[in-house]
Amino acid sequence: MSDDHHDHGQTPPSDMALRVKALESLMVEKGLVDPATLDAIVDHFEHKVGPRNGARVVARSWTDPAFRQRLLADAGAAIGELGFGGGQGEHMIALENTPSVHNLVVCTLCSCYPWPVLGLPPVWYKSPPYRSRAVIDPRGVLAEFGTVLPAETAIRVWDSTAEVRYLVIPERPAGTGGLGEDELAALVTRNGMIGTALL
Question: Which of 67, 93, 136, 187 is least crowded, fewest Cβ atoms below 10 Å from its Cβ?
Answer without folding.
Answer: 136
